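Re: weekly structure request thread

Next one in the queue (394 aa):
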Amino acid sequence: MDLLIVFGIALALLLNFVNGVNDASHSIATVVATRALSPWKASLSSALANFIGPFLFTTAVAATIGTALVVQDALTPVSLIIAMLTSILLVVIATHIGLPVSSSHVLIGGILGSGVAAFGLDAMILPPAAMVEQLAFSSLIGGIIGACSLAILALGLKEPVKPAVVPGVIFGIAVTIPILMVTGVFVLTGILAIVVFIFISPIIGFFTAFLFDLLVSHLFRYSRQNRMKRIFQPLQVAASLFQAAGHGANDGQHAVGVITALLLAGGVISSFIVPPWVVLTSAAAIALGTSFGGWKVINKLAKEITKIRPYQGFCAATSGSMILAMVTTYGIPVSSTQVMSGSIVGVGATRGVKAVRWEVPRRMMEAWVITIPLAFAVSWCSYMFVAVALHLPL
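Done, posted below.
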C-alpha cells in the first residue's frame, strides 16, 4: 500500500479521535449536569457506546461522505489528506476554546474545498432541480400547516395569535421534511440534505425535547422530586448511552467514508465497498477520543446553557438519540452538537424563557453557520498552496 494512503488512513483515524474528544460532550453533558454519573464514568461508558454504534447501523453516512459530495475524480489522496488536515486543525482549535463545533460540517467543508480546488466547481455533486422544487413545495405546505396549528392552539389558550405564527412556520417546516422522508414521499440526499439539516436538526431537537418534557412533567406532576430522581436517573443514563451509540454511528463513519475513498483513489479497492477493518478501526478511534473528553465543551453544554433535572436529561437524551438514529439510517451526516444543544435548550425552555442563557446557543449557532464556509475556504487555500509547491495540476 502506498505510503501516502497509509498516511491518509492515519489522519482519518486521528480525525475520528479528535472528533470523539470534542463530541464527548453530546453524550455525557446531561448525565454530568444532573450528576447521574461522574464525568469519568460518563466518558468511559459513552466511549463504549460510541464504539458499538457503527456496528448497529448501515454505512450510509460513510457512502455520503465518500461518494455524494464531490465527483470521484476530485477525491484524490492529496485532496482528501488536505481536507482531513483542515478538519483536524479546526476541531482541535474549537475543542481548545470550548466551542462545540460540528465535526461533520468541518469535514464536509474540507472535502468540498479541496475537491473544488482540485477539479473546479464541477467537482460538487449538486442536487437535481426536481429535488429542490419538491423541498420548496414541502417547506411551503409544512410552514402553512405549522402556522395554522399554533395559531389555533394560541386561540384555544386565549393567547396572542401573531407571536405564534413565526414559530409555527419554523416548526411546521422542521417536522414536515423528516416525516415525508420517513414515509418515503420525499427523498433528500447529498449536499442539499446536509444544508437543510444544519437548520432543522436543532429545531427538531428543541421541539421534540420540549414536548417530551411537557408530557413527562404532566404524567408525574404529583410526584416528589426524590421519587422522580430515583426513576429517571437510571433512565437518563440509558438514554445517554443510546444517544452515544447514535453519535458513534453517525460521526464515527466520517473516517470510514474517507478511508474507503482513499483506498478507492489509490486503487487498493475497485468500488466503494467498506472493508470490515475500516469500520473497526474507525470505531476504536472515536471511542478512544470520547474516553478523554473535551472538558471545556462538556462544561458549556452541561452547565452554561440551562440547569436541568434528571427527568429533563432523560427527555433531552432520548429526543437527541431518536433524531440521530433517523438521520443516520438515511445517510445524512448531521451535527450531533446541534441536535443535542437544541434538545437541551428545549427542556430548559419548558421552565420559561429566562431559564435558558440564550447568548450561549446564539454563539454556538453563529459557529455552526460559518463552519462549512470556513472549512471550505481553509481547505481550498491549502490545496492551492500545496498544488503550487508540488507543481500539481490545477
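The chain is about 75% helix and 0% strand. The chain has a mean pLDDT of 83.
Next request, please.
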